[in-house]
Amino acid sequence: MQRRVNKNGEVRWIARWRDKGGKEHSKTFDTRREAKAHEADMTSKASRGGDTAPQKMTVLQMYDAWLDSRPLRASSRDTYESTRDRQLVPLHNFPAVEVTVRDINQWRAQLENGRPWIGKKDRGLGAVSVRNAMLHLAAAYNWAIDEEILLRSPVQLPAAERALDMEDFPDAEEIRRVIDCVREGGAVYRMKGSDKKYHDNKQGPQPVVADMMEVVALTGLRASEIGGLIVADVDLERGVIRVRAQLNRNGTARVELKTARSRRVVPIAPELYPVLRPYVEGRDAAAWVFTSARGVPYSGNRLAGIVRYAARHCNTTRVHMHTLRHSFASGLLTAGVPVQDVAQVLGHTVQVLLETYTHVLDGHSDRVAEGIASGLSRGIIAGSPTLRVIEGGA
């Protein structure tokens, strides 16, 4: 191992080793500890007959090779490719073997605080999205290690924070204000024009999106699930919505649900019949339930943008499509609906539900077992009957 001081006076440590053919290789590290560990790894691998020549595979090449090695559903591949194309951009051309923990931490900070490759106005991602991106990259590195392409991964995953905080939940009045704003329009937002300058714009009425929000608030569907509904999925006669597919990220096609548990049947509250009836009665079974004026379904990104502009306009940024789902679940649990029933309606396992909504389950021993009406009648839509869980949905 060699100690070297560069022209800036900074100390660097050089690990040296020989490959199977006797050729010497070296790699520079910031600390003696890293250099020593790498040198030991190379020596150990050489003693086992492994190839110790440095690999020049880039992070992008490694990630693509990992994806190609897996039998993925279309929806899952869509998710992983989105991480590659939107989140991994700064690391694409890094040699995978040379990426350090420091590089990963810098990338993570950009994901959290603002992604310059997306644009100057980008505000970064939430904790869950950041962790998911890191999970995907970690999986690619683990594959490379299993394939003996690399020896170690620089990705150190942040601890999972599954439990939700009640402070993140909007109340019924906030939800109602945002839904009304979406329905009536008027939210002011800034957007870059053809002159490359930002201008104020006013959002027009979006009654279809407002209706979608009403449905999510009383069914707990995910944005991709409600966006992917077709008329055949909504059975007003039996009073159920059959969740059998979801919309892909581009909003162009129905794809498989991520897990078998996500395939489920959700009861329709009476208040939703007048909301849903115009979208399904007399229409072709294969038609999209909710579409824009152009006749295309709403992608998750488009839904998120519409709701975000309205929420900011109403000064209540806690409202977005997924918090409607959380509020639905929290309301049912608070009302005393059995945990296993709520888990089934949400498409969760009981364990995930308990970990996610622990704040709701603690200290509510006096709950009354009333269903959607009592759990969600905090001003959104009141008067629903007891929640019914229907088995055997196809």
UniProtKB/TrEMBL annotation:
Which CDD domains does its entry note?
INT_ICEBs1_C_like
Q: What is this protein called?
A: Tyrosine-type recombinase/integrase
GO terms for biological process, alphabetical: DNA integration; DNA recombination
Pfam families found in the cross-reference section: Phage_integrase
Question: Looking at the record, which segments are called Disordered?
Answer: 19-54
Q: Which UniProt keywords apply?
A: DNA recombination, DNA-binding
Compositional bias (Basic and acidic residues): 19-42
- Domain called Core-binding (CB): residue spans: 57-145
Q: Which family does it belong to?
A: Belongs to the 'phage' integrase family.
Record bears the keyword Iron-sulfur: no
Question: Is DNA-binding there in the keyword field?
Answer: yes
User: Which terms does the record give in the GO molecular function aspect?
Assistant: DNA binding
